[in-house]
Amino acid sequence: MSSHGGMLPPAFMRNGSPSFADFLADLAPDVLTARLLQASIDTTHMAPHGTTIVALRGSFGAVMAGDRRATMGNVISQRDIEKVFPADDHSVIGIAGTAGLAIELVRLFQVELEHYEKIEGVQLSLDGKANRLSALLRGNLGMAMQGLAVVPMYAGFDLVRERGRIFSYDVTGGRYEEHDYHAVGSGSFFARGSMKKMYREDMSAGQAVTIALEALYDAADDDSATGGPDISRGIYPVVTVTDHDGVRILTETELAPIVQGIVDARQRRPDGPLVTMEGQS
Hints:
This protein has 281 residues and is of the alpha+beta class. It has one domain (19-29, 41-268): Aminohydrolase, N-terminal nucleophile (Ntn) domain (Glutamine Phosphoribosylpyrophosphate, subunit 1, domain 1, 4-Layer Sandwich). Helix content is 35%, strand content 24%.
């Protein structure tokens, strides 16, 4: 028999924050990752880690893409993990770091945004959504200090500003708005260098998709933890386009010819495309 005599627990009746995470912490704090008993031994090498995520923004909106490899130490633990997810109708979240915790964080964030909209009757602004993700990350700080860090990247189409925006985070929940492009994960240094050379302010969504795929290819070329396109298995990066109409995940049928074109071009020039110098005669 229920300890509340058949009545709903007090957490269901209490007025307060529209945050689902706060509600869950009051009702069942033991199910939140941040409240779990942390191990006293180092288990970070036993947890799959995911990398690399890239994003570009423009007047069209935002493109986010992630490779499909997860590693445990020097072992490839999974070849087709998904690291980029829709957060709501007009935003996406990509994850790097400890895969299991990251995916749980994504699910909680998705429910958090849906719960807020149902309780308040309106959607959070894009800034508000980015701030909520920051708060969830702070709740995972204890795990991060144990080496089980989650490093997300958040992007979406701002319906007020009518353009795409990108937000990055550190393990303490610090939130930073990025301009034009960004990458997270072990291959991020190589991916950012690639995007720096190819980014154009007037690029279309299709061009941004190609640049994102080229950047992931460059990251995989120099970082063993980042997986390149696996054409023989039909495994391609997860690519999303977010614009005024919402979030769209590109299908394998759409990605296949783009990826094949990049691979074919790399056969002729392994280091990637030459960037035309503006103003060159």
